[in-house]
């Protein structure tokens, strides 16, 4: 509750659904037990395999920028430990999430099961290819920094949004693109730093 008050509401997150989701998802279930004392701190934390769980504010900010109403089907590129997935699943109808690192995919599955999230489908695969089987989506959220795959726009419904941290090495900016009948419009938001968006699948 203190995390939500100090790091999220105090910084201008206004969407009641996002605030309620951040209140209800136990963040400590998604980090290694050795780091659980820092689970609610204002920072990203390592989750192994060179990946991170994003800072709480960034999770809230990205979720808010999707402007979810509750009926949406959302594709997430980069499950990580499953925390952003869990927050999304509290607000939309269903989340489809892809993770390229098998060890993290397996951990996310355990974490989401422990946190009892039933409206989530997980896949270990290359996020740059999207998830054609369940397309089109109302929204696509990308949790690694880089440049958009053409496939993502194809897998969006008209009127749907793609949100990603765009840019080169560690220098990213949140971009929201809305798919129109022809082309799209785009808006720019916060500067941020994310782990790099990579192709392929990594099996241990």
TrEMBL record:
InterPro entries for the chain: PCMT, SAM-dependent_MTases_sf
UniProt cross-references to Gene3D superfamilies, sorted A to Z: Vaccinia Virus protein VP39 (3.40.50.150)
Compartments, record wording: Cytoplasm
GO cellular component, one term: cytoplasm
The UniProt record lists the keyword Amino-acid biosynthesis: no
Biological-process GO terms, alphabetical: methylation; protein repair
Keywords: Cytoplasm, Methyltransferase, S-adenosyl-L-methionine, Transferase
GO molecular function, one term: protein-L-isoaspartate (D-aspartate) O-methyltransferase activity
Stored Pfam families: PCMT
Entry EC number(s): 2.1.1.77
PANTHER family per the UniProt record, alphabetical: PROTEIN-L-ISOASPARTATE O-METHYLTRANSFERASE, PROTEIN-L-ISOASPARTATE(D-ASPARTATE) O-METHYLTRANSFERASE
Membership in a protein family: Belongs to the methyltransferase superfamily. L-isoaspartyl/D-aspartyl protein methyltransferase family.
Protein name, UniProt field: Protein-L-isoaspartate O-methyltransferase
Source organism: Mariprofundus erugo
Organism ancestry: Bacteria, Pseudomonadati, Pseudomonadota, Candidatius Mariprofundia, Mariprofundales
